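Handoff note, outgoing to incoming analyst
You'll be picking up this chain. Sequence as last confirmed:
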Amino acid sequence: MAGCGAGFGTGIATYMGKRQHKRKKGDIMNTFETERQAREYAATNPAAAYIVEIEHRNRGRCLVCAKVNADQLRKVEVPEVIRIIRNVADLRAEAEAKLKANVPGLDELRAAYEQAEQEYEAFARMMDDEQNDGARPPKPAANPAELAAKYPVAAAYLKAEAWSMASHYAKAAAGRKAMERIANGEDHRTVLTGMETEWAEHCNAHMWD
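Most recent structure output, in case you need it:
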């Protein structure tokens, strides 16, 4: 698959953005010579759900990261692409399976946090209601602390996820890396220590900027 550079993907995306077609803009995100390159790109681009092998008019066979699968890409007219050959990898399904295997209790703990937040908001509304004497407040049903103790890996993943949404780019990047490492099965305590150290070192290095 040699000879299909990353720049070609930008050309396709630009072309597709200018052309009327049934698929969404930018279905083909980028192109790569090896599956490893494609996976590394997809790791930082959640929209890249598939790696698809294509045959290009001038460059021969190569891989593309895409938002849709091979069957859907066949409906798109891109002159440079002779044919869509096959799905090489369904990245989203693989990532979800790996996350479920390596981070037990994640869905349960996330749901508990969301329920606790809803209960807190309901309690706040009750306290603001002048017609409610507050004598019988609703009993909390969710116990996130208990579940976090039961599922420490899930708790660590959700902490990293919260960091990934930070407004500062360096803190968010540290969180994203930690999420990926925990999802890959690394020790959650080591990962969180590394995440916090990375952020502290960044702060110290840029203290006087």
